[in-house]
Amino acid sequence: MARPDRPQSAYLDACCYIDWAEGKLSCPEVETWLQAARKREVQLIASTVMFAEARGHNNGPHDAAAEQRIRTLLQEPYVSLVDTTRRIGLLARDISVDRPRVKGMDAIHMATAIYADAAVFLSRDLRAFVVPEQYRGVWVEDPYEYGGEGLFPLSPNL
Fold first, then answer.
1. So what's the pLDDT on residue 153?
2. Nearest to 146 by CA among 92, 78, 82
3. Which terminus, N or C, of the chain has the lesser number of Cβ atoms within 10 Å?
4. What is the 3-state secondary structure (H, E, C) of the chain?
5. The model's pTM
């Protein structure tokens, strides 16, 4: 399977929300997904544990403004929040057994993406995830531009 440029649903890992809120690293690519979600071109999926993990502190001190941006974003109607249930916990355990590098919150995020039938899982966490690959029906990839290259201008001023 090739990378889907216009999937119907996507799961953004915590690092994606932190990058976006802090305006760093994959922020331009993540912004293209958010723009598409606002237009209802893609449904974003997030675990409710994202409120605990994505707090605006990627490689630095706590950033209250970034945390508030993430909290507000996660409550938008184009983000489907999925509660962490026993079923998701058990799936996360299975993932950790199958892929020992995928532990803890990373396993919960991946399990939620699988459980919710996300087409794409975006993460910069290369310690945990092998990219690009398809895993249990979900395309796993570094953050990339929604719609294919060149659809939206990638600039740090988004």
1. 54
2. 78
3. N
4. CCCCCCCCEEEECHHHHHHHHHCCCCHHHHHHHHHHHHCCCCEEEEECCHHHHCCCCCCCCCCHHHHHHHHHHHCCCCEEEECCCHHHHHHHHHHHHHCCCCCHHHHHHHHHHHHCCCCEEECCCCCCCCCCEEECCEEEECCCCCCCCCCCCCCCCC
5. 0.90
Exposed e or buried b per residue across 55-88, where buried means at least 16 C-beta atoms within 10 angstroms of its C-beta:
bbebeeeebeebbebbbebbeeeebebbebeeeb
Given pLDDT bands bounded at 50, 70 and 90, which one contains residue 149? confident
Token pair for 29: 């690519």
Q: To the nearest whole number, what is the mean pLDDT of the chain?
A: 91
Edge-to-edge strand order for the sheet containing 79-82?
79-82, 43-47, 9-12, 120-122, 138-141, 133-135
Confidence of residue 141 (pLDDT cuts 50, 70, 90): very high
- Which amino acid does the sequence have at 112? T
- The pLDDT value recorded for residue 57 is 62
